[in-house]
Amino acid sequence: MGAAHSASEEVRELVGKTGFSSDQIEQLHRRFKQLSGDQPTIRKENFNNVPDLELNPIRSKIIRAFFDNRNLRKGSSGLADEINFEDFLTIMSYFRPIDTTMDEEQVQLCRKEKLRFLFHMYDSDSDGRITLEEYRNVVEELLSGNPHIEKESARSIADGAMMEAASVCVGQMEPDQVYEGITFDDFLKIWQGIDIETKMHVRFLNMETIALCH
Amino acid sequence: MEGAELAGKVLSTWLALVLGLILLPSAFGVSLGISEIYMRILVKTLEWATIRIEKGVPKESGLKNSASVGIIQRDESPMEKGLSGLRGRDFELSDVFYFSKKGLEAIVEDEVTQRFSSEELVSWNLLTRTNINFHYISLRLTMVWVLGVLVRYCVLLPLRFTLAFIGISLLVIGTTLVGQLPDSSLKNWLSELVHLTCCRICVRALSGTIHYHNKQYRPQKGGICVANHTSPIDVLILTTDGCYAMVGQVHGGLMGIIQRAMVKACPHVWFERSEMKDRHLVTKRLKEHIADKKKLPILIFPEGTCINNTSVMMFKKGSFEIGGTIHPVAIKYNPQFGDAFWNSSKYNMVSYLLRMMTSWAIVCDVWYMPPMTREEGEDAVQFANRVKSAIAVQGGLTELPWDGGLKRAKVKDTFKEEQQKNYSKMIVGNGSL
Which parts of the sequence belong to the Phospholipid/glycerol acyltransferase domain (chain B) (predicted)? Predict the structure, then answer.
């Protein structure tokens, strides 16, 4: 993003595609360069330099989400090896707060996109369903830091949660009916009517001109 | 012949001026007010420059907000609050929401890495090195900037270099001479005089303006002085107002010569590299030093590395295990006149000194604080945190629990497990497992 004119065209394009303002994009670009070590793309290893991220139990899933082709809108499965700045912004845009000036349809669309991002985090094999195994996997990761919790406890938590999800989605099940997994529609059903907006957005500050004072 | 004579005359007048206007007053601790006049002119010029920049910039592009405010507003609510709300039962799909949000916040802006690069300024201070966000404004401003460059590199730099050279040589020669004397109160008095004079000369070599606050709490003999660390200049700043016994590794080269000379005049505590690894040895020697009430207070920087003066990082507990009275000192630099932070991965010592000598000035505030001792039932870590908070509050710096060693190393596993343990306690604690 070096010199004047071609850069501002790129910025305008990005503003249109992702919805960030041009100031925010410039700030994020600086952060991108810091993470990538001034390279044009970021790889998974570059995220190892963020100390705050180390504390997060699901950090590997979060990092994976950055490279997930479904989130990058580049395919229906698989992982990319590296991402460029536009991809970086695409992932960031999932966390933009829902604009109150948008109409109802757009709000629903945004919500759906955010929930889809989360769905992809659970559904690691990209088959469109969150199976019991995948759910267990997430719970184990979340509880992984505590050496006192055994695998059994993690499993029972996951099983319990899965049963509850099944009852919401499918209703009462026959004794020999197997619940295959939570599909994306089921996922949406679980969250219907519940306000997830504050949970799933990061407040990007608006860079306004401020009066300079000594 | 003529040229050489002329050069000789210029050099001798130059030296005479330096001697009369700077060296002699430093020896007596008197100030002639030249640096005050310089600072006033500087402040007026920078104010003018800022007003020009404000007028010159068109409304839409605007000036960037200082990066210290950040791109995002982090959600500071604790984990319990963040996870509740959507929580109906023990474990919710929504917990992943919370953690992914936290993860993204960390990726966009992490508190730690930004402390290891220089603070960004809100308005330009006419130094090229801080000119990242600012564009060409007007001809007059550029002219002033060019004038500034000339003044800094052609007038100030040679002057400062001469002073630094004289200061360091005087220090080495002076302390060696004083070291020849037998131990007596005369020797102590002389060594103090030599130290103070040379430090004052060195501070003037950087055009330093230092304000000392609360001088009544200046560290006493037999105590330990603890301060936040921004650059090697911190040592100069503190020793200008009092004599300390320094602690550190023995270096080679110029630093080594200075260290060896200084230790002859008064007892500093220098360690060999191999000895530093042995913590008990270090603690023992320091304990011996403070047990002798006649010895000067020890100066320690518990952060262990240079931070960029916007925050205070974790204080290593080693210095707080020695016992004795701790005298905290807060040092805050004014970044408008020159950035004192030493980014050791970016600049080596020589280029750092060069940058210091070509800045406008080094302006800082030093606050001496009332002494603190370890209370009953408080362990070294808690004591260290208490002192750290006190320093952060006094200096107007933010407080971070992170270790300055993260500049070069990765996060310790124990830290990582803390957060995960908290979360798992929440889930399992509530449930019937």
Answer: 223-334
